[in-house]
Every structure is written in C-alpha cells, then in structure tokens.
Amino acid sequence: MDAAWHWISAHGVTLASSILLVIDVALRVLAVFVVPRNRRPGSAIAWLLAIMVFPLVGFPLYLMLGKAQLPRKRREKQRLVNRLMHERAEEIPDSDLDQGSPSWLQSAVALNRNLGAFPLTGNNSVDLHIDYDLTIEEMARDIRTAERSVNAVFYTMGLDAVTADFFRAIGEAADRGVTVRLLYDYWGSAGHRRPYKAMQRFLDQHGIEHYPAMPIKPFADGAFQRPDLRNHRKILVIDGKVGWLGSQNVISRDYDKRSNIRRGLRWQETMARITGPIVSEMNLLFATDWYFESDEILAEAELVHPQPDTAGELECQIVPSGPGFVLENNLLLFDQLFYSAAERIVVVSPYFVPSESMLYALITAAGRGVDVELIVSSTADQFLVGHAQRSYYEELLVAGVRIQLYEEPYILHAKHVTIDDFVTVIGSSNMDIRSFLLDMESSLMIGGSDFMQQMRDVEAVYRERSTRLDLETWRRRPFLARSLDDICRMASSIV
C-alpha cells in the first residue's frame, strides 16, 4: 500500500495529465460524430468549435443544451394533441380566399394546415392597437364583458400599477362565476419577482386557477431537460368571441426592472383585437397549452362557439410553432412568403437573427426587385442578440434591403410581416433562432387587401419614429464593434 501511494505521489501529476488528455481527445472525437446529427450546419459548426476549444466545458454544455426538444412526458402530450388536431382539421374545410388573392397564398394556407392543423376561417375582423397602456385598458374592458370564460396565456405577467385594472377585471369576472384560466411562462414572469408574487397572491385570493408554463424542473422527467424552452405566446380569449394576440405582455412598459428604468427603456408593441370564427381556433390553441400544464383536456364544445358577429371580411389562420412540432412552422411560413413576394416585404421585429434560409430569401427577394424593408430597434435590451443582429446589417444593405432603426430609448418589440398587399403575419414570433426552434409561439396569418391599410398605417408610424441606416456610415463603425458583432453572431448559432 505504501509503495502504491509512493508511486502515485511521484507520478500523480503525469497520470492526471494523461487521463485529462485521453478525455480531451475522446470528447473531441465523439463530438465530431454526435453533434452534426440532424442539426443545421451553422449550429453544428458553432457547437463543434466550442467543444474543440473547451472540450471539458463545451461537451457537458452540449449534453444539457444541445437538443431542442420537450421533456418526454410533454412530447407524449404533444403527440396526442397533434393527432387530435389533425383529425379535427380533416373534418373542417378551409374558407374560400378572395378572388383577387394570389395563387401562392393558397399554398401558404395548405402549408400552415399541414404543419399546425388549423384551418383557414373567413368572416373575421381585426383591429390593431399600438398604445401600450391603452391596450391593457382595452383588454380589461373586454374581460369585464365575459359571461362564460376568460382564457389567457402570456410570456410575462405581473401585477403592478399599470396592470392593476387588468387584474381587477379578472378578479371581478371570477367573483361573478366566470371560469378564468391563466398561464404565464415561468422564466418570463418569475424574474420580475415583486409583480409576479403580487399577481400570484391576487389570483389565489380570487380562487383563479393558474399555472406557470414550462416550469424549470431539470430532472423531473428522469433525465436532464433543457431549461430554456419557453412558452412565448400572448393570447387572450373572452367567451370564445373576442380574442387578443400579438407581441405585448401584461406588465408595465419598463417591465418593472431597475436597469430599464435607469436607461429609460420603454417597450413599443402591436396587438390585434379579433372577432369572428378564428377566435374559437385561438381558444383551441390555448387549450393545448392548458393541457400541458394542468393535465385537463377541455371539451371542444366549451371552446368552439357559434359566432354572433360574422360581418368581418378577413380570412385568418392560426400558425402555432415550437419545439413540440417536427418542423419549424413559423420559419417555413416566413420563408415561403418571402420567396412568393412580388412587390414588397416589410418586416418588423425586435430580434433579427435569421436562419440561412431566411437570410437568403430576403436577399433573393431584394435581388429580383422586391422592395424589402426591415424595421428594428436602434438599441437592444439583450447584449448577445443585439450584437448578433447588427452583424447582418451590412450584408442586407449591400443587397438593397432598407433598414430602419427605431428611436431610442424605445425597444420596438412588435412582431409582424406584410407581403405585397395581400398577406399579414402578426404574433409573438421574433425573427431569430430562439423563436424558430426553442420557443412556443403563436402567429396569425391574415389574407386579403382589406386589412392592409391598417398595417400600412402602423408601419408608417414606426417608420416616422426611425432613422434609415446608411451603408457607408455603417461600414465606418469601429473595428472592435464589428468584431464583437461577428463573435456574437457565431455564439447565437449555438442552439
């Protein structure tokens, strides 16, 4: 024993170094075979680079964060939901498009139906709202008309001075016997501790059933689960008759964060108030999220209601997306629309870190004469995404894309796309890898030219508050700034 200990003492450093070297080499070799499997080339290269440089850190991180899939139990629920939704969709025909609609719009409808199993519905009305505080007031006003149910899922919810009346309306509804169901993303809400706790206390006092969506329980499913898969949707449905959908959360405009208040940051949003048959489809999408968190399957008869108001003229289709689906539903829709555009594309997004397919679709559109415009914030609330986004500007500007930078200190958090004079997509989805792969998103595709003037008016407001980015000025930015942007671009590919 003494001899063995003496040998270890004499050769321990060499032995440890040899063991680390073997592990180092083994991890690098293993990564070459494991990482690229069913992964985008850009993402695979980024992961491989991280593992090759820091194998003892990079490979464990890959095991924790390398798979964009829901936990096993949630995947089983998702498969059940997908099957039920597709069976239902087979029995419901799509509404007819306007005669003046382009042929490619029917292809987009078919794509969405095959991916998300939601039909195209007609006779809908949509009104846009861009005043942050007034939007919360209007949602509260609709909640006060509720007779049967209020269903809501928001990425961030909190009770503060701005949202107090919203929650009072919810409490009043529950007190008079209306069924109220609330979901809020755990990560998106719990980080705002004071309004989050105040909200939970309020909901409990009124006996309202509520759940944090996607709670972080790394080992609850028998194996480590990726913690950054989030429910990023923003949906409110009252009685299955009135719906709200868009980019805005239910919290004060500065998100009750000291750093935002210190910097003077304020969020600018676009929300859609919707009536017509599509609201029942929104209710069904909410029901899938409710099932994930509560284990309760809501009856279709409780969710789908005959619409008293079918005077609208818009065709609408819900587009759900997220890690529970086989493909990236939102990305495929955006790419299809960008390649179909003949005259004009306007993209409004707070976070623009596109996939290669989306980047090429926009560059190709500009190259064939389509007027392509990107409206984004001049300042960013997220360091990595903000710098990664900037790395794409020169390439887009060279291709002929116009880039508008929304005025500081506002964060343009609105998320919508218009194609020619026929199609709008509005919802919670950003134009970045997170929204395509990791976040559960809700988008609404609106067909027809009748709605386009509302969108053009909103785009005009955002354009008036923006400054157009000049290529030569952008090229003169400091070398260190460009290098930081490029590094963040590479890091953003690690998903």
From TrEMBL:
It is a multi-pass membrane protein. CDD domains: PLDc_EcCLS_like_2. It is found in: Cell membrane. Keywords: Cell membrane, Lipid biosynthesis, Lipid metabolism, Membrane, Phospholipid biosynthesis, Phospholipid metabolism, Repeat, Transferase, Transmembrane, Transmembrane helix. Its main location: membrane. The chain crosses the membrane at residues 12-33, 45-65. It holds the Pfam family PLDc_N. Residues 227-254, 408-435 form the PLD phosphodiesterase domain. The keyword Metal-binding does not apply. Its EC number is 2.7.8.-. This is Cardiolipin synthase. The lineage of its organism: Bacteria, Bacillati, Actinomycetota, Actinomycetes, Micrococcales. The gene is cls.
